[in-house]
Design goal:
44% of the residues lie in helices and 24% in strands. The chain has 318 residues and is α/β, with parallel strands linked by helices. The longest helix has 31 residues.
Length: 318
């Protein structure tokens, strides 16, 4: 290891590659997720993390099937690893931005989309995100909703610069960058039997049907697909219209999985509850871009969303 990419953590020398693999594994919940993000083999990630654990003197993850869960030591080191990795990445990003400015590049506009079905307050949230990104990046940004295949078509056509998914997207032509995690929650109707339960488990949900939307859940590893892989056994019901959603929540005692944000409550029609993280651990939010279109403007956006994800999530929470 040379001094240019080496850090001391708890008195042990570690390199930036190890920290990057550790951070991405923590964000995606798996070594394979980190490997896909970096374009390397799972074996390479596993070997680097084993070396890191030996240098630090303790395990960073414990295995849970195909997934990994942070140990106490790992939880303590996620934030320092994030800061180290993003600080390291900031140097080439800043240099690229400087070169673009020195070359007289025009001001960049960012056209972004959240891959999600319409939800309560979505126009307000998209407008607030656009204002925040525009202000902090000193460039005009637009943010709107889009469905999966529609969003990919616009990405390929160049009418979108990046899309954001809740859960990773597996597409060879794209880079899928985890930028932060969100907790899993559920929407239920005002008369649902679980309405007064504070924290919901998969066992609680088993008797009740869960909403499936083909345009969303067949596009990427959504919250629903992730929970089904982890053992959720609720009956899956395909819903495609607003009228069906209302009937599904009120008459069928169904529920909808989503990001846990109390701000998304639409009382008295529907309520948001948190699902026990032991059953449904946090899911990564990912920025998806085409591999052949990455440039200095992309580097600036990449650096911004990685560093400001907490601010964006706090804005949504309010």
């Amino acid at each position: 290891m040379n001094g240019r990419d080496t850090y001391n953590v708890m008195g042990a020398p570690v390199n930036i590659r190890q920290l990057r693999y550790f951070y991405l594994s923590a964000q995606t919940g798996s070594f394979s997720g980190a490997a896909r993000a970096e374009g390397v083999s799972v074996q390479a990630v596993s070997k680097s993390l084993k070396e890191l654990e030996e240098e630090l003197g303790g395990p960073l993850f414990r295995r849970d099937g195909r997934h990994v869960i942070l140990t106490r030591l790992g939880s303590e080191l996620v934030e320092p690893a994030r800061v180290a990795v993003q600080s390291f990445d900031a140097v080439p990003a800043a240099a690229a931005a400087y070169r673009a400015g020195a070359a007289g590049a025009e001001r960049v506009d960012y056209r972004l989309a959240l891959v999600t079905p319409p939800f309560a307050k979505n126009e307000l949230i998209c407008a607030a995100l656009a204002r925040l990104i525009s202000h902090m990046m000193k460039a005009k940004a637009t943010v709107r909703l889009a469905l999966g295949n529609e969003a990919m078509g616009e990405l390929e056509a160049g009418t979108l610069d990046a899309i954001f998914t809740v859960g990773p997207l597996h597409d060879a032509q794209c880079t899928c960058l985890p930028i932060g995690n969100v907790s899993v929650g559920m929407f239920m109707g005002k008369n649902h039997p679980l309405k007064r339960k504070r924290k919901i488990t998969f066992d609680d949900l088993e008797p009740y049907p869960v909403l499936y939307n083909k345009q969303i859940d067949d596009f990427n590893d959504t919250i629903l697909t992730t929970c089904l892989k982890r053992g959720l056994s609720s009956p899956v019901v395909e819903i495609s219209t607003d009228e069906e959603v209302a009937d599904f929540l009120e008459q069928q005692q169904g529920y909808i999985l989503g990001v846990y944000l109390k701000a998304l409550d639409i009382k008295p029609l529907a309520f948001m509850h948190k699902i026990d993280p032991a059953d449904a651990p946090p899911v990564p939010v990912c920025m998806v871009t085409l591999k052949d279109r990455q440039n200095a403007a992309y580097d600036r956006l990449n650096h911004f969303v990685c560093n400001e994800f907490r601010s964006l999530k706090h804005l949504l929470s309010e």
